[in-house]
Design goal:
CATH class of chain B: Mainly Alpha
Shape of chain A: globular
Number of helices of chain A: 12
CATH topology of chain B: Methane Monooxygenase Hydroxylase, Chain G, domain 1
Structural class of chain A: mainly alpha
Helix content of chain B: 55-70%
Radius of gyration of chain A: 21 Å
Strand content of chain B: under 5%
Largest sheet of chain B: none
Oligomer: heterotrimer
CATH architecture of chain B: Up-down Bundle
Chains: A mainly alpha, B mainly alpha, C mainly alpha
Number of domains of chain A: 1
Number of domains of chain B: 1
Strand content of chain A: under 5%
Number of strands of chain A: 2
Shape of chain B: flat
Order of helices and strands of chain A: HHHEEHHHHHHHHH
Largest interface: A-B, 87 and 68 residues
Number of helices of chain B: 4
Number of strands of chain B: 0
Structural class of chain B: mainly alpha
Order of helices and strands of chain B: HHHH
CATH superfamily of chain B: NADH:ubiquinone/plastoquinone oxidoreductase, chain 3
Strand order of the largest sheet of chain A: 1-2
Chain lengths: 375, 118, 512
C-alpha cells in the first residue's frame, strides 16, 4: 500500500520532470529544424548550437514586467494560461511508457495511473485545452484575442469529432478503454494498429495537428490576420505558459498516438528496451509534426472547417463502419482482413477526394482546391 | 490503492508548478507604473475603437451546436465499442440504426449548407 | 453477457412501430425537403400525409396483434385510440397548414418534418408506461414545437413566442425529470404503475418524497396542457406562433399532456393527488373563461378558451375510471375538430401577414362569405357547448363522469363557467353575422381561400356536427381505449406481484 503510494508519487514526479525537460529541447529542436528547412541558421549564439536559447528565453520571460492590460477579466485572464498547461500535463498520467518492471520484488507498471478508462480520460482532458484558448480570448479585452479564441475553440471542437470516431475503431479492435490493454492487444494480434487502422491513423494525424493548433492549422494565432490570436495580450511568463502548454500537448499527443497505433513500447526489431523504443517513436512523431509545419502553408478558415466536417468526419465514419462489420464477420481473421481493407479504404477516400477537388476546380477554376493544403 | 489517486498527484504537481511559476513571475517582474496608454489593449498601434466584447458571427454558435449533437453520438459509441464482440450481429444492427439516424441529420445539415463557411 | 434474442426484439419493435414509422417518415420528409426545395410546396405535405397514413396503418395493425407490454412502452387499446386521435389531428394540421405556409412563405421541408416529429413525441408520451420514456416523449414533443413557434423568422412576435415557449418549456422539462428522479428514489422504479403500486402496498410507508415527485411531474404536465396557474405562457405563445402551429399546439400538445396524465392517473395515486387535481381544474375553468371574455384578439381568445377546455378535460382525469378516461378521449376528439375548425377559419380570415386578427375585423364577414360565417358559427357553438354539436356531448360525458365519481361541486362550477363561455363564443358569431362591415377600420379580413381550405373547413364543420349526432359509436370506441388503460395497469401490477419489489432494500443493497 505504502509502497504503491510512494511509487506512484515518484512516477508522477518523474513523468512531470521528463516531460517538462523535453519542452526546452523541443523548442530548440523546432527552431533549428525549421531554420534548416528554410535555409536559415537558427539559434546559434547561446551555448553550443544555440542549445541554451530556450533557457535564456525562459529567464527573459520570467523577469519581464507583469502587465495586466486595462479592461481584462482579471481572474480568467490569470487562469487561462494554466488551463492550457495543466490538462496537457495531467493527461500524460495514463500513458504507459514501458512494460512492467520489477523493483524490490514488486511489479511496477511504467505508467502513473493504470485506470481502465484511460482513453476516455485522455479525450476528456485534451478537450479541456479549449478552455485555455477561449478564456484567454474572452478575458483579454482585445478584438484579435476574441477572434482568435473563437476560431481556436470552433476548430478544436470540430476536430474532436474525427478524433473520437477514429479512436472508437481502436476500441472496437481492443475491446477495452485501458491504454495498457491497447498495447497488449497489439502484441497479441501480432500487428500494430497502424495497419488495420491505416485510415484512422491518417485521420488522427491530421486531426491532432489541428487540435494542437499547429501550422498549417494555426488559424487561432495567425499572425498575418489577427496579430497573435488569443494570446495577443499575454506577455512574460503567462505567455510562456501558453508556449510550454503547446509543446507539452505535443508530447502527450505523440505518446497517445504511439500507444494507440504504433504498439506503444514494443520493439519492432532489435533489442527489447521498452523505454527507448517508446522515446524513439515519440520523437519520430514530433519530428513529423515539425516537418509538416515547415512544409505546408497555412490553410484558410473555410478550408479548415470543410476538411474537418466534410472530409474527416465521413471518412472516419466509413472507417468505423468497415471496422465494425469486418470484426463481426471476419471472426479470427478480422485483423488481417482489416489490414488490407483499411488501405483499400484509404485509397478509396483519396480517390473520392481527388475527384471532388477536380470537380470543384472545374466548376470554379478561380478557386484553390478546398482543403488540399492540409491533407 | 485507488487507481485514480496517482492522477490526483499528477494534477497537484502540474497545478503547483503552474501556480509557482506564476507567483515567481509576479515577484520578479513587478509591475512598473506608466501612462494609461501603456496598458491599453493592442490594436495595431491605434487607440482601441469600441468594445472588444462585441457580437460575433452566429456561425460559431452553429458549429458549437453541431459539435454537441455529434460529439454525444461519438460518446455513445464508446460503451458500445467496449462490449461489441459480445453483442455480435445484434450490436452491429443496433448501432447501424443509431448511426443511420444521425447520418440523416448529417446529410441534412450538409445539404442545407450549415457546414459551409462563407 | 448474452445478446438479447432477436424474437424479443421483433415483438418490442412492433410495440414502438407506430412511433418509429412516423419518425422515419419525418426523416424522409426532411431529407426530401432539403434536396428538392423546388418541389417543397407539394412534395413535403404529400409525404407528410403519406407518412401519417402509414403510421395509422401500423397503429391499427399493432393494436390488433394484442402485444404484451414491452417494458417501457405498451401497445394497449388506449394507445391505439390515443395514437389515432393524434394522427387525425396531425393529418388535419397538414391540410390546414398548406394554405397558411404557402401564403406566409414558410414552405420548407422542415415545417412538416418537425410537425411529424412532434406528433411522434405525443404518441410516445401516451404509449409509455415508464417515466423515462414519457420524458423522452415530452422532449420529442416539445423541442420541434419550440422551433415551429419561431418558424416565421421574419416576424418578431413569432421569435418572441418561440423564446418564451423554449424557456418555460425547458423549465417544465426539468421539473418532470426531477420529479421522476424523486419518484424513483422513493419507490425504486421508474415504471409508472409499479411506482404507484409500491407506495400503495405501503412497502415504503408514506413517503413525502414520492408525493413531492409526483407533484413535480404534475406541474410539468400542467404546464404542457396549460392549467392555471401554469398557463401564463399560453396567450403570448399562441398569439405569436404561426397560426397553423398554434392550432397544432392547442390540440396535439394538449392531447399529449392529457394522455400522459391519464397514464399517471391510472396508476392510482390517491389522497392529495385528487385534491390537487380538483383545485387545478376549478382554477383553470374559472380563470380561463374569465380572461377569455375580455380578449379582442381572436388568437388570444382561442388561447384562453383552450385553457378553459383543459380545465374541463382535467375533470375527466380526476373522475378517472372507464367513464372518465373515455369521456376525456371523446372530448379530445371533439375539441380537435372544433379547434382546428376555428383556427382554419382564422387562417383564412387573417389574410397575408396575419393582419386581421382582431375580432372587430370580422364585422359582417358572414354577409360576404356565408361559408365562413356558417362554419365559424358551428365551431363557436360547439366550443360553447351548445347542442347538438360535438362540444355539447363531450361536456355531457365529462360532467356525468365527474358526478358519478363524486364531484358534484366541481360539476356545478363547470356548468356555470360554461355559461360564461357562451358569452364570448357567441360574441364572435354576433360580430360576424349581425354587425355592418366597416371598410376603413383596420386591415380588411380576407374571405377568399383555395378550394382545399374551403373543403377542410366544411369537412371539419360536418365532423363537429356528426360527432355530436352520432356520438354513441364514437364513445364506444373511446370506451375500449379506457378499458385498455385499466387492463394494462392491472397487468403491470400482476407482473410485479410474484417477486415483491422491495424498494428500500434494493436501494440500500445497491449502496452497500
Amino acid at each position: 500500500m505504502l509502497f504503491d503510494l510512494i511509487a506512484s508519487f515518484i512516477k508522477a514526479v518523474l513523468v512531470f520532470a521528463v516531460v517538462m525537460s523535453f519542452v526546452p529541447f523541443l523548442i530548440w529542436l523546432e527552431r533549428k529544424l525549421v531554420a534548416w528547412m528554410q535555409q536559415r541558421i537558427g539559434p546559434n549564439r547561446t551555448g553550443p548550437f544555440g542549445l541554451l536559447q530556450p533557457i535564456a528565453d525562459a529567464v527573459k520571460l520570467i523577469i519581464k514586467e507583469n502587465i495586466f492590460p486595462s479592461g481584462v477579466e482579471k481572474i480568467t485572464y490569470f487562469l487561462a494560461p494554466m488551463m492550457s498547461m495543466i490538462p496537457a500535463l495531467a493527461a500524460f498520467a495514463v500513458i504507459p511508457f514501458g512494460s512492467p518492471v520489477r523493483i524490490m520484488g514488486r511489479t511496477v507498471n511504467l505508467q502513473v495511473a493504470d485506470v481502465n478508462i484511460g482513453i476516455l480520460y485522455i479525450l476528456a482532458l485534451s478537450s479541456l485545452a479549449v478552455y485555455g484558448a477561449v478564456l484567454a480570448g474572452w478575458s483579454s479585452n482585445n478584438k484579435y484575442s476574441l477572434l482568435g479564441g473563437l476560431r481556436t475553440s470552433a476548430q478544436m471542437i470540430s476536430y474532436e469529432l474525427p478524433i473520437g470516431l477514429s479512436v472508437v475503431s481502436i476500441v472496437l479492435l481492443t475491446g477495452s478503454l485501458s491504454l495498457n490493454e491497447v498495447v497488449r492487444s497489439q502484441a497479441s494480434h501480432g500487428i500494430w494498429n497502424i495497419f488495420p487502422q491505416f485510415l484512422g491513423f491518417i485521420i488522427l494525424l491530421i486531426s491532432y495537428n489541428a487540435e494542437l493548433n499547429r501550422a498549417p492549422f494555426d488559424l487561432g494565432e495567425a499572425e498575418s490576420e489577427i496579430v497573435a490570436g488569443y494570446h495577443t495580450e499575454y506577455s512574460g511568463f503567462r505567455f510562456a505558459m501558453f508556449y510550454m502548454g503547446e509543446y507539452v500537448n505535443m508530447v502527450t499527443v505523440a505518446a497517445l498516438v504511439t500507444v494507440l497505433f504504433l504498439g506503444g513500447w514494443q520493439a519492432p526489431f532489435g533489442p527489447e528496451i521498452p523505454l527507448l523504443w517508446f522515446l524513439i517513436k515519440i520523437f519520430a512523431f514530433i519530428l513529423l509534426y515539425m516537418w509538416v509545419r515547415a512544409t505546408f502553408p497555412r490553410v484558410r478558415y473555410d478550408q479548415l472547417m470543410a476538411l474537418g466536417w466534410k472530409i474527416l468526419v465521413p471518412a472516419s465514419l466509413a472507417n468505423l463502419a468497415m471496422t465494425a462489420v469486418i470484426i463481426v464477420l471476419g471472426g479470427p481473421n478480422a485483423v488481417r482482413i482489416l489490414s488490407v481493407g483499411s488501405i483499400v479504404l484509404a485509397v478509396l477516400v483519396g480517390l473520392v477526394l481527388k475527384a471532388a477537388v477536380a470537380l470543384r476546380t472545374k466548376s470554379a477554376p478561380g478557386l484553390a482546391p478546398p482543403a488540399g493544403a492540409g491533407s | 490503492m485507488n487507481p485514480y489517486l496517482p492522477i490526483l498527484f499528477m494534477l497537484v504537481i502540474a497545478t503547483a508548478f503552474a501556480l509557482a511559476a506564476m507567483a515567481l513571475a509576479l515577484f520578479v517582474g513587478r509591475p512598473r507604473p506608466g501612462p494609461e496608454r501603456k496598458f491599453a489593449p493592442y490594436e495595431c498601434g491605434i487607440e482601441p475603437v469600441g468594445s472588444a466584447r462585441d457580437r460575433f458571427p452566429v456561425k460559431f454558435y452553429l458549429v458549437a451546436m453541431l459539435f454537441i449533437l455529434f460529439d454525444i453520438e461519438v460518446i455513445f459509441l464508446y460503451p458500445w465499442a467496449v462490449v461489441f464482440r459480445q453483442l455480435g450481429v445484434f450490436g452491429l444492427i443496433e448501432m447501424a440504426i443509431f448511426l443511420g439516424i444521425l447520418l440523416v441529420g448529417y446529410i441534412y445539415v450538409w445539404r442545407v449548407g450549415a457546414l459551409e463557411w462563407q | 453477457m448474452t445478446a438479447p434474442s432477436l424474437q424479443i426484439i421483433t415483438w418490442n419493435l412492433w410495440v414502438s412501430a407506430p412511433v418509429c414509422a412516423l419518425a422515419a417518415s419525418a426523416m424522409v420528409t426532411l431529407i426530401a425537403g432539403a434536396f428538392w426545395p423546388a418541389f417543397a410546396r407539394w412534395l413535403t405535405p404529400c409525404l407528410a400525409l403519406g407518412g401519417i397514413a402509414l403510421t395509422a396503418a401500423f397503429t391499427i395493425l399493432a393494436g390488433m396483434l394484442g402485444l404484451p407490454p414491452a417494458g417501457m412502452q405498451v401497445m394497449d387499446s388506449f394507445t391505439v385510440v390515443f395514437d389515432l386521435i393524434i394522427l387525425i389531428a396531425a393529418f388535419i394540421t397538414v391540410l390546414v397548414s398548406n394554405h397558411y405556409v404557402t401564403r406566409e412563405n414558410l414552405e420548407r421541408g422542415e415545417y412538416y418534418a418537425l410537425m411529424m416529429l412532434s406528433a411522434s413525441g405525443a404518441m410516445l408520451m401516451a404509449a409509455s408506461d415508464n417515466y423515462v420514456m414519457m420524458f423522452l416523449g415530452l422532449e420529442l414533443l416539445s423541442i420541434p414545437l419550440y422551433v415551429l413557434a419561431g418558424f416565421s423568422r421574419g416576424r418578431s412576435e413569432s421569435q418572441e413566442s418561440a423564446l418564451k415557449y423554449l424557456l418555460l418549456g425547458a423549465f417544465a422539462s426539468a421539473f418532470f425529470v426531477f420529479g421522476a428522479a424523486l419518484v424513483f428514489s422513493a419507490t425504486g422504479s421508474t415504471n409508472i404503475v409499479v411506482a404507484g403500486d409500491a407506495t400503495e402496498r405501503a412497502l415504503v410507508g408514506t413517503t413525502p418524497i414520492y408525493v413531492i415527485g409526483l407533484a413535480m411531474i404534475l406541474t410539468a404536465l400542467a404546464f404542457k396542457v396549460a392549467l392555471v396557474p401554469f398557463h401564463m405562457w399560453t396567450p403570448d405563445v399562441y398569439q405569436g406562433a404561426p397560426t397553423s402551429v398554434t392550432a397544432f399546439m392547442a390540440v396535439v400538445a394538449k392531447a399529449a399532456g392529457f394522455g400522459a396524465l391519464a397514464r399517471v392517473a391510472a396508476a392510482g395515486p390517491e389522497g392529495s393527488w385528487t385534491v390537487l387535481l380538483w383545485g387545478l381544474s376549478a382554477a383553470t375553468m374559472i380563470w380561463g373563461n374569465l380572461l377569455a371574455i375580455s380578449q379582442n384578439n381572436i388568437k388570444r381568445l382561442l388561447a384562453y378558451s383552450s385553457i378553459a377546455h383543459a380545465g374541463y378535460l382535467l375533470m375527466g382525469i380526476l373522475a378517472g375510471g372507464r367513464a372518465g378516461i373515455s369521456a376525456v378521449l371523446f372530448y379530445l376528439l371533439a375539441y380537435a375538430a372544433m379547434t382546428f375548425g376555428a383556427f382554419a377559419a382564422v387562417i383564412i380570415l387573417a389574410g397575408r401577414g396575419d393582419g386581421a386578427e382582431d375580432i372587430e375585423d370580422y364585422r359582417g364577414i358572414a354577409r360576404r362569405s356565408p361559408l365562413l360565417g356558417w362554419t365559424m358559427a358551428i365551431f363557436m357553438f360547439s366550443l360553447a357547448g351548445l347542442p347538438p354539436f360535438a362540444g355539447f356531448f363531450g361536456k355531457l360525458y365529462l360532467f356525468s363522469a365527474a358526478v358519478e365519481a363524486g364531484y358534484p361541486g366541481l360539476t356545478v362550477l363547470a356548468v356555470l363557467t360554461s355559461v360564461m363561455g357562451v358569452f364570448y363564443y357567441l360574441r364572435v358569431t354576433v360580430v360576424m353575422w349581425m354587425q355592418e362591415p366597416e371598410a376603413e377600420s383596420g386591415p380588411a379580413a380576407q374571405t377568399s381561400a383555395p378550394l382545399l381550405s374551403r373543403l377542410v373547413l366544411s369537412a371539419l364543420a360536418v365532423a363537429v356536427l356528426a360527432l355530436g349526432i352520432f356520438s354513441s359509436p364514437v364513445l364506444r370506441w373511446t370506451n375500449s381505449g379506457s378499458a385498455g388503460l385499466e387492463r394494462s395497469a392491472e397487468a403491470a401490477i400482476q407482473m410485479t406481484l410474484p417477486e415483491p419489489t422491495n424498494a428500500p432494500a434494493a436501494l440500500s443493497g445497491g449502496s452497500r
